[in-house]
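Researcher: Good morning. I'm working through a list of sequences from a screen, and I'd like to move beyond sequence-only analysis. For each chain I'm collecting a predicted structure so we can compare shapes side by side. This is the next one on the list. No need for commentary yet; just the structure.
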Amino acid sequence: MCRIMSNKSLKACHLICKVIDFFGDIGVAWRIAKQLKVDFNIEVHLLVDDLMTSRRLIPSLDISLKKQTVDGITIHHCDFSEDSKSLPPPPAFVFNLFNIDLPNAYKLLMQSEKSKYIAIEYLSAEPWVENFHLKPSIDPESGLIKTFFYPGFTGQTGGLIREKDLLSRRESFVQANRDKFIMSFGGNPNLYSISLFYYPIQKIEAFLDVMELMKKPIQFFIPQYLFDLLKVKKNYQYLHIISYPFLNHDDFDDLLRSCNLNFVRGEDSWIRAIWAGKPFIWQPYIQENSIHLIKLKAFLKSYCEDCEQELSEVLFKMHDDWSNNKFNEALWLDFFKNQSSLESFALKRSHHYFKEPSFVESLVDYCSET
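Model: Good morning. Structure tokens for this chain:
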């Protein structure tokens, strides 16, 4: 549990987010902002440079405003270039999501105000993360001390993002909720359901052709903007493809809970797939020289540490199959044969991670000690 906060502890903060690609950055930022506000009653100022993209996740956002309040969170439209003066004065705590470059004038203000500066880093299961978590670094230009805060899968990291009521919400999502949710998209609740959230580089048409060979009735849920890029055959006998509009966080969580298998990517949907407690296949953000595959193997090694060897091999092979666009028919037959065991294991691992403090809880706890 989080410790009682002192008068000098975290009461207000800046959460800085630069929207670089897709929706992962703002997705993570919005979840952190909401949890800081809802679970810990902290005054949150979200500083973001792209309101157009942000509005996909925050529909009530007015892109014409420089400053506005949504769900109790103050949102500032900012420019993070070196000569920018659009950032409001920093409070006692500044959280820089994914450690982006900030204007030197803003850093100097943090220095003069003695703001606690925390760089929130990307999620990884690589062993080195534990050694860098909570390590300080001195900014050469301003002399500002920055502390690195890493999410992660062990007690020696900051943990995973989750809301206080997440487990109870998942457990209250009963079969009737699931059936109603599936039918709201025109789906059949009696069919095996797969959600496909992937990077556009993925060869989905080839994957669907292999799925058709399984002769297993399957319905796929694909985001509309990805569906629009597909060249889908119209004569599938066993496959049913359903496109869905952009979903808010709660509805996306319900989609993951509703499906028998979830394909996810990046960081935010990856974490939510873990919390859904359903089998999933994760695609890391694709990097040059296949660096992302190192992250993938490190995660699978950690995730499968309490897994039977046969099941572990299935998960490793399926992720390799997906990451390399191989789509091996024999592997998928083996996957479906192990469906029940995979479901039990996914649920078990989610409960394992629930035992650790959440990322925001760890962050607030750390700030209240400084």
